[in-house]
Design a protein that fits this description.
Tetracycline Repressor, domain 2, 2 domains, globular
Length: 303
Amino acid sequence: MKKLKIYLRLFRIKHYIKNLLILFPLFFSGGGGKHLEAGAFFTTFIGTIAFNSVSSAIYIINDIKDRKQDSMHPTKRKRPIASGDVSVQEAKIISLLLLLLTGGLLYAAKAEGAACFCCVIYLFINLAYSFGLKNVPILDITLLGAGYLIRVLFGGFLAGIPVSAWLFLTVLCVSFYLGFGKRKGELEGCMDRGDNAASLESKVCQQIVMRPVLEKYTLSYLDNHMNLCLGLGVVFYSLWAMEKSIILVYTVPLVLFICMKYDLVLTEKADGDPVNTIFASKSLLILLVLYIGIIAFILYILL
């Protein structure tokens, strides 16, 4: 049981929430559920599991590469590889098995070439990110954002549903917003707050484990671009809503409220990671569930 818990931490199960983006094309297609036929649902479901598998493989590869740096980090030192709970050799074998599992699941789902290509591209850009590009300013955030966008496109190819242009642009802008937010949280975490002397953990963060790319950013730069991307994202979402149904326009205030709440949580107590930010606030989670419920009611009951 203890080993199982270690593996679950190694796989970063909590981060699978990001892969819900794969369901967006199927979910937001609406139409009274006409797209939710067994074939499309089965392919999307198995494809999502496959993407979970490749995501975990990438996390493991990244943890292997960063194990020495992580071992000196106040919180990352608890990760299974950095702490020594999982050996490097064992982690390499597990990552290889996960990649093989990904291929097997895509084959079982009868995923078409475009969907498989998305998985390959996702693997490639994340490996490139881990092995150096995460230290290149702007490009690092672009690659972070691309990961979210690929998930949506992957889901569209799996279900055989074209991704709406407005939905594509919405996800694109929100992806950049989350990327800039991640860097903002990391930068704030590596800065002294207030007039008090830096804590031991803050000093460790500054002197040992601060990402080199953070030296290229300022909080004002990150804030400005977060605001730009968020504003565009809300505009594109509004255009998608108007194109889909006038009723959906009434969800825009809730979307704005969720964004403001996310920004507040990010500023107050999160490290910048979108998943940690969401789980850091129960009220934010409730708002997201409420939004999903309202959208489902409109798309599949009213329309």
